[in-house]
Amino acid sequence: MYLKSVRGIMNKLLKKSTPGGQAYVAEFKRGSIFNKMDHLACFTGGMLALGTHLIKDYGPDRADHLKAAEELAETCYKMYTQQPTGIAPEIVEFRGGTDMSSSPRSAYYLLRPEAVETFMYLWRVTKKQKYRDWAWDVFIHIDKWCKVDGGGYSGLRNVGFVPPQKDDLQQSFWFAETLKYLYIIFSDDDLLDFDKWVMNTEAHPLKIRKRDPADVWDKKDVKQREKDKALSIDERLRKYQEQFERRANRGDNRGATQPQPQPQPDQPKNAKDEGTTEWLREQERLIRESRERHAQWQREQDAKYEAEDAETQRLKRLQQQR
Q: Under DSSP, is residue 25 helix (H, G, I), strand (E, B) or coil?
């Protein structure tokens, strides 16, 4: 499943800009390709690098995927070096497939971890000193512009201005992820052996379980597992989906010991269905209200960004006049 997904990314979303040849993962939305990359997408290089390290029967794509990981890491580093502050914006654009540029609307920085995460994994996999150097360079600029005199670190409103204005917000992932990845990249490998530990999406290390799950299955499940090995990934997924839907339709909670509740004598037979329908209506109402609140918030953010854009242009004009 992983390799199939990665091949899809490589074939459909991995692009290179002109004339600089900057590799980036484009965004696919509503059936269209958008030539932009969020800082969030910088994790992709680390994902590819870790995959080439952990999957033993990777096949002939290993070298291409590791090369793509390194090229994406270089683009993410340039997201930092091309800004006056040396700190990356939230989003960069590759308009018409050209080299990266950024907009004042998305020029803020939230102490994000994804770039140094990729540097960490590539250091472990390749042992190329440049990944430690890049990580240190990123940290030096974060420490210079984001550190608060009274303690802690703050995000920035616009990384295109020196000195930048702080947003007075310290994200929790600054501790959970960004600093943790920086600590790991400059530590010995035995601090966290990636053959024994896996990091989840929030950088929490989880011990890799070596025991075969079949050890706790019953004989029927073991036999079925052996049969399933002959099926393709798509066939297995389709089969599991059908099994899930069958259990859901008949209310079968496997392993449950509690008996299913029976209708009371003075209740109509469809009382449970009516209750379910009422619950669904309530959920739909809550979802509508949540969407309305989000839409209102989005309108407020758009107005805020438009005001900030106008202020940015005004400051640029003042700088030019000086």
A: strand
Token pair, residue 260, equals 């299913």
- Residues belonging to the active site: 90
Helix %, strand %, coil % for the chain, to 5? 55, 10, 35
Quickly list DSSP for 183-208. Answer: HHHTS-GGGS-TTTEEE-TT--EEEP
Residue with token string 């459909």: 12
Q: 82 phi and psi, to 5 degrees?
A: -85, 0
Q: Is the pLDDT of residue 253 over 60?
A: no
157-204: pLDDT as tens digits: 999 999 999 999 999 999 999 999 999 999 999 999 998 999 998 999
User: In this model, does residue 225 exceed pLDDT 90?
Assistant: no
What predicted TM-score, i.e. pTM, was given to this entire model? 0.68
CA–CA gap between residue 119 and residue 201 (Å, rounded): 16
Give the CA distances from residue 124 to residues 44, 58, 138, 190, 258, in Å, rounded to whole numbers and listed in that order: 15, 18, 18, 11, 49
